[in-house]
Amino acid sequence: MYNQIPHERPRTALLDRINDPSDLRALDKSELTLVCEQLRTFLLYCVGQTGGHFGGGLGVIELSVALHFLLDTPRDHLIWDVGHQSYPHKILTGRREAMLSMRQLNGLHPFPARSESAYDVFGTGHSSTSISAALGLCIGDKLNGLPYKSVAVIGDGALTAGQAFEALNHASHVDANLLVILNDNDMSISANEGGLAKYLSKQLKNTQATNTALFEALAFNYTGPIDGHNLAELLPALQLALAESGPQFLHIITKKGKGYTPAESDPVGYHAITKLEPIDALKKVSTKAKKPTFANIFGQWMLERAAVDAQLVAITPAMKEGSDLVAFAQRYPQRFFDVAIAEQHALTFAAGLACADIKPVVAIYSTFLQRGYDQFIHDIAIQNLNVILAVDRAGLVGQDGATHAGCYDIAALRTIPNTTIMTPSCERELWLALNSAMHFTGPVAIRYPRGTGADSIIKDKNATIPLARAELLRTGNSKAALLNFGPLLASAKIVADKYDLTLVDMRFVKPLDTQLLTQLLQQHQYLFTLEDHAIAGGAGTAVSEFLAEKLVRICHLGIPDKLIPHGTREQQLSICGLDEAGIEQTIKQKLALWNTQH
After folding, report:
1. Same domain flag for 435 and 345
2. 291 is catalytic
3. Active-site residue identified among 95, 103, 255, 256
4. Regarding beta strands 272-273 and 52-53, do their DSSP bridges make them parallel or antiparallel, or are they unpaired?
5. Is residue 7 included in any domain, yes or no?
6. Does any domain span residue 289?
7. Which of 175, 347, 513, 575 has the fewest CB atoms found within 10 Å of its own CB?
8. Where does residue 210 fall: left (phi above 0), alpha (psi -120 to 50 degrees), or beta otherwise?
9. Can you give the CATH number for the domain in which 81 is found?
10. Phi and psi of 417, rounded to 5°?
């Protein structure tokens, strides 16, 4: 058991001999306990140097060693769900000496990545995909006449997602030779919620007469629960499961943060850590108060708004801590809903609440909102329901990389009718945006980044922003204007001052402040747009679409930004002006207008 993270590389002579799993398989089984001990020590050192996901990897040290000892990886397929726990796997598969580059530019990926190693047979980062992927590999091998095994390791948190059960259902239907290992540590990022968590908890308390009805109903051969840290118990259970045909389900019990005392006692706080400061720096105690993050401002707004609005509720898909809703959950437990890793359910649940005249606010990371796209369109937007999406971690997020970057939410949402999209530039603007959203009709998405912005001083906590109203911050004497969408405003101000640009904080992506845009177009020859989002389909594209008709005399024929009522396809095309008569009428009118403007 360790109480401190080592600042210097520990001696790991046996581990250093393992350059790939074939070296591990050449060892005697009696040496595996020492491998686990050295692997745990080395992992503590590495994550201390780089920061990163912490508790999950410590919890699967023994499982990682056992699987690579028994499987013929990479020919046998091993998939780690999400990938929070994949650092030991990386160390054992030829990346030991590269671990100090983890999460750094041009260094190791923070999650399994096919481009990095043949042992990462499927890239992960979001939860609950492993069973589907492993099943695909399993069936693919069968079709190709290959004898290899497929194993999915999924946590009890990830198992709550619907996709995991969809895959379990399909695996039983095709009678796949698939091994699903449930790594049950009673945790997601935070403690698990819901009926499945209660069911699994009962399994642990009654190991002598385990109720296997759920898994047997899905035609899986269930084994467990067993101690995932006891190699003497784990190895034979794995061997037996791998030898059996048909869908196998092995339930193992692990402890998140195993072997490091602070992480065992605080698995939420040690889910991930920042890198250690140098020893000398640890002696210095900072007295500077931390600036509140965007998430902190959101959490504080929720608390204050709930005190005056009894209809306000908070919903989050297993992101209570990250979205800063812990205090809200404690103060208003009947109005807080952690739905577990179930983004689709979160959005439709919010839609149902809105139908009952409740005011739901869904706190969700941009990268995870992608999973609820259909539900946002079908259940919220089409019905024009008053649901607020607090889209956290919008834009680039740093070391977690591409799987967690929130670069696509504007492009995804701005094409959907009835939708309002706001891009606050600082913490004060976030507060105003949230106030304003309570008065708008229909769904509102408010996107804000990880970390802090330029301004956290909120003078009037009841102030609002009129719909589609941008803020002209600076009138320049140059021929160019800079339109800012979101949290890059501080940098934009510096550049605008330097080059005497007109500067506008646009605030809204949809609807745009077209009155101000028209004015800017009359006064400037050049426009620049700035956003922390993919250019393709983003806020700048929305500006270009508006300006295109004025600048290039272009007219877009297609489905307009409204819901088209039911009828025959021919009737719907007519409503949209996309039948022959409509196309002719639009072109005729536009040509007549443009010809008179010469």
Report:
1. yes
2. no
3. 256
4. antiparallel
5. no
6. no
7. 175
8. beta
9. 3.40.50.970
10. -55, 155
Residue 458, domain member (yes or no): no
Q: What domain count does the chain have?
A: 4
pTM of the complete model: 0.84
Q: Which residue has the tokens 């009709």?
A: 441
Tokens of 96: 């030991």
| Tokens describing residue 354 | 């809105």
Could you tell me the CATH number of the domain that includes residue 505? Answer: 3.40.50.920
Q: What span, in angstroms and rounded, lies between the C-alpha atoms of 13 and 23?
A: 13
C-beta separation of 506 from 515 below 8 A: no
Contact 324, 331 (CB under 8 A): no
User: 251 and 313: one domain?
Assistant: no
Say if residue 250 is in the same domain as residue 111: yes
Axis crossing angle, helix 231-243 with helix 61-70, rounded to the nearest 10: 40
**Same structural domain for residues 169 and 202?**
yes
| Model pLDDT for residues 399-421, shown as the tens digit of each residue | 888 889 899 999 999 999 999 99
Among 62, 193, 335, 343, the one annotated catalytic: 343
Active-site residue, 97 included: no
- Give the separation between CA 315 and CA 360, rounded to whole angstroms: 7
DSSP state of 209: G
Structural domain for 346, as ranges: 294-447
Q: Which of 498, 482, 479, 546 is nearest to 518 (CA)?
A: 546
Cα 197 to Cα 209: distance, rounded to the nearest angstrom? 18
Beta strand ranges found along 185-290 (DSSP E):
221-227, 248-253, 272-273
Of 447, 462, 487, which one is at a domain's C-terminal end? 447
- Residues 51 and 139 both lie in one domain: yes
What's the CA gap between 314 and 465, in Å, rounded?
Answer: 22
Of 258, 305, 371, 393, which one is the catalytic site residue? 371
Q: Give the CB-side neighbour count of residue 66, counting CA atoms within 13 A.
A: 25
**37: in domain:** yes
Same domain, 506 and 593: no
Residue range 216-235: mean pLDDT, rounded = 92
Residue matched to tokens 């492009």? 411
Q: List, in sequence order, every residue forming a beta bridge with 184; answer none if it has no partner.
A: 253
Tell the residue number behind the tokens 């009962």, with chain if given.
Answer: 202
Residue with tokens 């339109």: 483
State whether 233 and 337 are in the same domain. no
- What pLDDT, on the 0 to 100 scale, is given for residue 205? 57
Whether residues 406 and 486 share a domain: the answer is no
C-alpha distances in Å from residue 121, one per residue of 301, 381, 387, 470: 43, 38, 39, 47
pLDDT in tens, 320-369: 999 999 999 999 999 999 998 999 999 999 999 999 999 999 999 999 99
